[in-house]
Design brief:
210 residues, 4% strand, mainly alpha, 8 helices
């Protein structure tokens, strides 16, 4: 029977990722504001947590990311211009829109890494996980934004009169591209280093391809 228990080193690493998420959330390190949206580098610790501890680690890191993102709607740890407006429209929907996408992102990443390890080496699996960390974060975030606030004047103005798909693409633009590139490169490199240090569980790592 396989054990799902994590080692002290792996749990310590998760704690470190949580600390990094908090540091990035409450300092300028985590966000680069461009227009109504911001380039977020917080997707990287979420991806690394999912690589090391699977869906559980991804869920924990994603939840921390989502919570800090929501708190910015009320000025805790910085302020999000969009978050402030959405909170003013509907605080409960604002919480869902900020928290749930990041939680789902982390959970999905754990399964993505496991799936990729069956068909690729560690570096590729980590890099792909990093890419999807940014991609799914953007996809889930925008889907929640449109689903919960799409009928508001604020979001309609952000869309600039375009249909949903074109409007969303114009909104995320360079932000999403920068997140995907940085998350892919950094998660791939860090994940490969963690695998060499034996910090990724054997059940996660699988058998390395030649």
């Amino acid at each position: 029977m396989k054990s799902n228990r994590f080692t002290t080193a792996q749990l310590t690493l998760l704690g470190l990722m949580a600390a990094i998420l908090l540091l990035m959330a409450y300092t300028p390190l985590g966000y680069l504001n461009i227009g109504p949206l911001a380039i977020s580098f917080n997707v990287i610790p979420v991806a690394i947590s999912a690589v090391v501890l699977g869906p559980v680690g991804g869920a924990v890191a994603g939840a921390i990311f989502g919570l800090t993102s929501f708190l910015q709607c009320i000025g805790v740890g910085g302020s999000s211009a969009m978050g402030v407006v959405l909170f003013g429209i509907n605080p409960f929907f604002a919480f869902i829109q900020r928290f749930v996408p990041r939680l789902l992102d982390g959970i999905c990443l754990g399964f993505i890494f496991k799936g990729m390890r069956k068909v690729s080496n560690t570096y590729v699996a980590c890099a792909v996980t990093g890419f999807f960390s940014a991609f799914l974060n953007t996809l889930f975030f925008m889907a929640a934004l449109v689903g919960l606030f799409g009928n508001t004047d604020y979001v309609k103005n952000l869309m600039g009169g375009h249909n949903i798909i074109i409007g969303c693409c114009l909104m995320v633009g360079i932000n999403a591209v920068c997140e995907m590139v940085s998350s892919t490169v950094i998660t791939g490199a860090v994940g490969a280093a963690l695998a060499k240090a034996h910090l990724i569980p054997a059940a996660q790592l699988g058998r390395e391809k030649a």
